[in-house]
Amino acid sequence: MTRTLAIGDIHGCSFALRTMLNEIQPQPEDTVIVLGDYIDRGPDSCGVIDLLLEWRTKCKLVTLMGNHEQMMLTAIEEPGDWQFWMQFGGRQTLESYGGTKEDVPADHWEFIRTLEPYFETEHHFFVHANYEPRVALDRQTDHYRYWLHVEHPPLPHISGKRAIVGHTAQRSGEVLSYENLICIDTFCHGTGWLTALEVETERIWQVNKSGKRRLNGPKVVPPAKY
Fold first, then answer.
1. Residue 178 and residue 223: Cα distance in Å, rounded?
2. Residues 142 and 70: beta-carbon distance below 8 Å
3. pTM score, two decimals?
4. What mean pLDDT, rounded, does the chain reach?
5. pLDDT tens digits for 146-176?
6. pLDDT band at 70 (very low <50, low <70, confident <90, very high)
7. Is the bond preceding residue 223 a cis peptide, omega within 30 degrees?
8. H or E segment at 33?
9. Is 136 exposed, middle or buried (0-12, 13-18, 19+ CB in 10 A)?
10. What is each CA distance from 195 to 57, 107, 186, 199, in whole angstroms?
11. Which residues make beta-bridge pairs with 163?
12. What Å distances lie between residue 98 and 44, 61, 178, CA to CA?
């Protein structure tokens, strides 16, 4: 069976990502959507991007832009924003490469510059942070796509599709589920988990930053909260 899988915010946690990919075992016919924020805060942003570049050759990998990737690009292009990026994890990212922006290899810059703003399937759409409910997906602003946290309860999008998002960290480690939105940022770089969601079945897997699987194995997204 062909699967559509989404993976939440990784933030430099390469052990978690490697374990997760080995756990869910994406096949060549599967589509894996990674929701952005590959870098910053965690110890191995370089290793995360290396893994994603490797897995591009093994399955249909869709990599979305997150606000941290946008911060990195802006810091390089606008020196006045450099300290802003450093404050929110840029220092850890550069240390994972060797210490300077010159240590970042060309294929990693290309990876970051070519990230997608969103992705959609017949019944779902995927974006890093949030969406403006009454605006078409291809006309959303960067503020909504990459920066705005989920509001409670989120309004449905005019497309009628269910949103799969990250960005709004669930420090409890539990997936946030509404009828029209699922948030799978479960605070991996902190005390939570990296979450993967099989969209068709709503089955989830979780691994912490040390690469330890959550006890009791895969489970199903909890009922919608209102």
1. 8
2. yes
3. 0.95
4. 94
5. 999 998 899 999 999 999 999 999 999 999 9
6. very high
7. no
8. strand 31-34
9. exposed
10. 22, 26, 7, 12
11. 125, 181
12. 11, 27, 42
